[in-house]
Amino acid sequence: MSATTFGHRGVEAVQNKDWEAAIPLLDKALESSNAPSWLLARAQAHQQLKNYDAALRDAELAYHAAAERGSGNSRKQMIEAQYRRSVVYHKLERYADADCCAKWSMLLAEGRPVGEDDGVQKKVDENGNYIVTYEDGVADHKGQPGQPAQGTSNSNRVLGLMNSQSAGTAKTGFESDWKRAYTWRSQVLGRLKSLPEDHPGWKINVTKVPPKPQAKPQKTPDPEPESASDGEEEKPAKPVGPAPGSVPDEQLKLRADFYQSNQNVSVSLFVKDVKKEDLSVKFFKNKVEMSPLPRAAAPYVKPGDREATSTFTLGGDIDPLKSRWSVTPRKVELVLQKATPGVKWATWGSEEIGRVASEDAGDQPSATPLAETAENKTAPTASAAAPPPTATGAPAYPTSSRSGPKNWDKLGDTEGDDDPQDVNYFFKQLYKGATPEQQRAMMKSFIESNGTALSTDWEDVKNRKVETVPPEGVEAKKWEA
């Protein structure tokens, strides 16, 4: 199979969010060429799998590869590389660095010179803390490609920002990239303003042009095994893949999703090709042990290996005898019966690789582990009826989503890889980050103008009716029954 085929399939796997499958395909493709598009795709896959160092390295290498090629797609790839750096730094809680990279992504999308000394990373106080605020980020749109000309009313300028109407600044072809970086900054700066003053996330440790990563050393191929001589036994072949214990625990952990009702906590653990007949699941009052689990990052693991076992420390106590589990080709589902119904868990829990000894001598698995009985091989579906909320007010979160249960309490905690090009997404982000007074102004102006104007200035709109201002070439007419 050619490098191009590997690369095409790897990019396709990233588009389908099959991160584990994408990385080996892109690894093979990149053995032949440092194509920026392949590097950026692999950076995204590594980021989703929490391999942040690898993701950052790929994003930085993609920036240099695009700059050196100087092709028609180079600027767009450099814009994407800066954006990807920003997302990774956000994950690493380096929020000031994340905002700098997001701003550089915007400047490139505006058509600004690549080598321009814009001074973004110099905006610090005497203590070296970043001084750009959330309000600065929201107001920073004068360079947006296609924005209305200076002097346009505040309400129409915001609408122009949402609809990319070009009435002043020339379009560059990167309008959607600019909007994505602009919207992402609201999340970065929103996190930054909530940090304590001594948090390292306030410091700038990044440069506009990233240091070029060194090429990875080529692996020396193992010597060909010698043929067995007469009278000597042939040695077994070496196992394929890295040796046990060589993969960090953080890379072995499973991606998890959950939702809860008054009675249960449903947890989805995303792991492929689990053999239901071989899987052992043991429920304790505050943890679950599971083995053997195939690992995408370490496919060599076997039953009995430490890496094949996970211990899930739970966010609350459960009734082991009433908890259940099931297996599908892509995940393991746990339905945990709360020991105290109506109590809301802050989180489902956390995963540790291997077995974790219990500090409570009374913490024993159920006398007949549910994982080992045939009648419990199939758990009820996630849409099973749940009782209504109790007086405690604990919410119930049923779902019919094809993508599985969601933790709706964390819906706002996005990681920047949703599609922010949608106008509704932008409006939600703008509204969520506004002050109560700004939100009041937005609602009043939007409703009174029939959706044609949007203002964040309450002083401007509180004592007047906001008139309907249709786009150029459109005539506003009153609706008649």
The rounded distance between the terminal residues' Cα atoms is: 65 Å
SSE class: alpha+beta
The overall pLDDT, averaged over residues, is 78
Query: Roughly what percent helix?
Result: 25-40%
Contiguous uncertain segments of 5+ residues: 217-241, 367-394, 411-415
CATH class of the largest domain: Mainly Alpha
The number of distinct structural domains comes to: 3
Q: Which topology of the largest domain does CATH recognise?
A: Serine Threonine Protein Phosphatase 5, Tetratricopeptide repeat
Shape assignment: globular
- Strand tally is 8
User: Which band does the percent of strand residues land in?
Assistant: 5-15%
Rg from Cα: 27 Å
| Element pattern in H and E | HHHHHHHHHHEEEEEEEEHHH
The CATH superfamily title of the largest domain: Tetratricopeptide repeat domain
CATH architecture of the largest domain: Alpha Horseshoe
